[in-house]
């Protein structure tokens, strides 16, 4: 029986943990700093146990890693390097759903030399996006064709029927990651030209895309797309862009939030007894007695009755509500978003993932291939985000435990021996990527 330890018991963990507990050849330990949550996840399972773990306690962390065969980290990404180094030291393979950062990638040679597999990016984005893209790309090149243009967009959103707040978004976890990414620069290739966007101007560069059956969405660039030319083997690509889906209005609102200065983590002094209104006044430089709403509108160049200002009012930036436990503007914004943009009982989330390929066939004709995943959460059950993040990770872990992956070192699921079995099993779990193909006459793809 293989012993698997899972570090973390957060909101996306349940489906994957239950998948592994359903395997009779595994014993699953869930280690968490919230032991009650961990205990609930393994309740009634003879092949599972829960325990408290402080991952900053290196001694405890190493002891738990030593006791198990495979390590799965659902911790925040900042902890992965420490976990990976301890796995390397103790000859244990590991898996995560997070991006393989530079510190983890630096362990590739050492992991290979020890015959270990460090499998990363096996979630939805990253994860299913890699797998579904490479499946098509490999097939096109196997047929003697070329991928000329490639767009890959993904978003976790409220289902349309539950998109009922002014922001068009809801958080099922801390907003910090989404907000921090809102000031990250972007780079992509389009029609042979490298486009570079400064983080402060990210939300000015969005486009609209219609998705049949769901409506129109905004798409803005997601980080640096250029490395995927090599990762995906897109040697002929004239276009390569990865982006993020949001409902209309998101980009204008976030652009103004950035302009106001709300995405600032710099500690602010003397906040005792302050309110959200006073904090906002301080941020925008409003003097005593000045109309803060009007001053904010002036700062971002919008009318006082604009949609964006109305959203900020609704959020609570101008309220006299006391602030406590906050020492910077980013945390203030995160607090308000967490309180207002949440999923109520019975509401559904949605994962929307779509790739578009323009391919040149061996006979020089051109086709457009669309690869689409539309997945909804289960009312009263698991969210789509939880299923699409943790189930690919769990399937990858099972394949590792059953010695069905002949790969070593630091890997992502961009190879057939990984993406083929994982995608096939996800389809059996009703997480299905649908492909369509049709001829086109133009070499360019406009969205």
Description of the structure:
This protein has 447 residues and is α/β, with parallel strands linked by helices. The strands form 3 sheets. A 7-stranded parallel sheet has the order 3-2-1-4-5-6-15, sandwiched between helices. The protein folds into 3 domains: 2-119, NAD(P)-binding Rossmann-like Domain (Rossmann fold, 3-Layer(aba) Sandwich); 128-159 and 183-250 and 348-383 and 431-440, 2-Layer Sandwich (Dihydrodipicolinate Reductase, domain 2); 254-340, Domain 3, Saccharopine reductase (Orthogonal Bundle). Mean pLDDT is 94; it is low at 443-447. α15 packs across α16. The chain has helices spanning 14-21, 35-42, 58-66, 80-89, 102-105, 108-113, 128-142, 176-181, 228-231, 250-260, 276-284, 292-299, 307-315, 329-340, 384-401, 416-428, and strands spanning 2-7, 26-32, 48-52, 70-73, 93-96, 117-119, 146-158, 186-190, 193-197, 207-211, 215-221, 239-246, 349-360, 366-376, 409-411, 434-440. It is globular, with a radius of gyration of 23 Å. The protein contains 16 helices and 16 strands.
């Amino acid at each position: 029986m293989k012993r698997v330890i899972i570090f973390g018991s957060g909101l996306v963990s349940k489906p994957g943990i239950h998948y592994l507990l359903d395997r009779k050849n595994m014993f699953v330990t869930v280690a968490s700093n919230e032991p009650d949550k961990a205990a609930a996840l393994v309740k009634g399972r003879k092949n599972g146990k829960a325990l408290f773990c402080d991952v900053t306690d290196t001694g405890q962390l190493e002891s738990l890693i030593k006791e198990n065969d495979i390590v799965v980290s659902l911790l925040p990404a900042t902890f992965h390097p420490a976990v990976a180094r301890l796995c390397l030291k103790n000859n244990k393979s590991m898996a995560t759903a997070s991006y393989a950062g530079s510190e983890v990638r630096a362990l590739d040679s050492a992991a290979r030399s020890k015959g270990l597999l460090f499998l990363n990016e096996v979630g939805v984005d990253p994860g299913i996006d890699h797998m579904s893209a490479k499946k098509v790309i490999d097939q096109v090149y196997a047929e003697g064709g070329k991928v000329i243009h490639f767009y890959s967009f993904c978003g976790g959103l409220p289902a349309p029927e539950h998109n009922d707040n002014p922001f068009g978004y809801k958080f099922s976890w801390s907003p910090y990651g989404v907000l921090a990414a809102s000031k990250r620069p972007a780079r992509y290739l389009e029609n042979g030209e490298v486009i570079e966007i400064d983080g402060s101007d990210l939300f000015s560069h969005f486009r609209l895309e219609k998705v049949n059956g769901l409506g129109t969405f905004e798409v803005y660039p997601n980080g640096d797309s250029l490395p995927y030319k090599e990762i995906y083997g897109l040697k002929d690509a004239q276009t390569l862009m990865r982006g993020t889906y949001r409902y209309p209005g998101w980009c204008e609102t976030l652009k103004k939030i950035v302009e106001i200065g709300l995405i600032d983590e710099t500690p602010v002094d003397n906040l005792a007894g302050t309110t959200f209104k006073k904090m906002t006044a301080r941020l925008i430089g409003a003097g005593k007695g000045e109309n803060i709403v009007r001053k904010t509108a002036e700062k971002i160049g919008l009318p006082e009755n604009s949609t964006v200002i109305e959203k900020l009012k609704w959020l609570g930036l101008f309220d006299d509500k006391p602030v406590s436990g906050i020492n910077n503007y980013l945390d203030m914004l995160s607090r308000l978003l967490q309180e207002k943009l949440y999923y109520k009982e019975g509401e559904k989330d949605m994962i929307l993932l779509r790739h578009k390929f323009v391919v040149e066939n061996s006979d020089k004709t051109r086709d457009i291939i669309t690869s689409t995943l539309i997945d909804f959460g289960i009312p009263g059950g698991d969210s789509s985000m939880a299923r699409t993040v943790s189930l690919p990770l769990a399937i990858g872990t099972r394949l590792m435990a059953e010695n069905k992956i002949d790969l070593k070192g630091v890997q992502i699921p961009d190879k057939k021996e990984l993406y083929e079995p994982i995608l096939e099993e996800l389809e059996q779990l009703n997480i299905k990527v649908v492909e369509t193909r049709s001829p086109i006459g133009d070499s360019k793809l406009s969205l």
